[in-house]
Design brief:
five-stranded mixed beta sheet, 2 helices
Length: 288
């Protein structure tokens, strides 16, 4: 019996005897918003952490994407759970600045004009080609959204550096003053299970005139932004968070809702029709 199984044991040893097994931790993302329903103009605060085998870590990157009720990106960020995330970034942003259409540095743009962003990306991988999706997120000095979108995606070959210029449209009704652009490199959108290649990079620019500096963004896993008071899309917003930590993927998905308080007739504005309904029902009571 033993001699009969000996050849199979030899084969198994040859196949697996020199194999090194690497244990990866169980990674999880915990994420919360400070409330579930927001009124138009409210600030939104997202916080969370990354754990490995149940222990919080302070050196992870988290790719964040918020998708609006219309399915378009509302926020695109790469946040850190500590000051100095560890890791070997296979793809990195070498340089980032706002410029004109041919790459000359420029920091002042008019409303209704087209701004441009120069970005230099390098692969430090010696063997693999990496597909990179570039995410732009820009905000005003009060943390409200200017624009968020994915301007382009590309393949970066091993050891190569790629330079590109992305367009950044400035709305005609944009706020005057300082704005900040946050650029992230993802394997795909976080909503499609993409993760961050490296920490995000930022650059400041000005629209029409200057104002006090933009508020610094937290370096931990915290994001605060403000819903605009006008022309905001009402409904459910989806938050997608992905983190690749020590070769283990963690995913978290949350949602919040934006409403217009006082819009009784649900026509997207608060006017005398809404006030009339409130006045007509004044004094009535109900039991919940």
């Amino acid at each position: 019996m033993h001699k009969k199984f000996l050849p199979y044991m030899v084969i198994l040893f040859l196949l697996f005897g020199n194999t090194m097994f690497v244990l990866v931790p169980i990674v999880d993302i915990g994420m919360e918003t400070d409330k579930q329903i927001y009124n138009v103009g409210d600030p939104v605060h997202i916080s969370g952490n990354v754990t490995a085998d149940g222990v919080p870590v302070n050196d992870a990157l988290v790719a964040i994407e918020i998708v609006s009720p219309y399915g378009s990106p509302y926020l695109i960020r790469t946040v850190k759970t500590g000051e100095n995330p560890s890791g070997y970034w296979k793809v990195q942003i070498l340089n980032l600045y706002t410029c004109d259409s041919v790459g000359n540095p420029k920091t002042l743009f008019n409303k209704g004009a087209m701004a441009y962003v120069f970005i230099s990306i390098k692969s430090y991988d010696s063997y693999l080609t990496h597909h990179v999706k570039v995410g732009f997120y820009t905000q005003y000095s009060d943390n409200s959204l200017l624009i968020a979108y994915y301007p382009f995606e590309l393949d970066v070959e091993p050891g190569h550096e790629i330079q590109n210029i992305g367009s950044l449209p400035i709305p005609a009704n944009a706020q005057s003053g300082e704005a900040v652009i946050f650029v992230s490199l993802f394997s795909d959108t976080p909503a499609n299970a993409g993760t961050a290649y490296c920490p995000e990079k930022t650059a400041s620019f000005y629209i029409a005139s200057t104002t006090p500096p933009a508020q610094p963004q937290p370096q931990y896993f915290n994001i605060t932004f403000k819903m605009p008071k006008k022309d905001v899309k009402l409904g459910n917003y989806m938050i997608y968070a992905r983190s690749m930590y020590q070769n283990s993927l963690a995913t978290e998905i949350k949602s919040f809702k934006v409403i217009l308080v006082g819009d009784i007739v649900k026509d997207g504005k608060v006017d005398m029709r809404d006030i009339g309904i409130v006045c007509g029902n004044y004094g009535k009571t109900a039991i919940y």
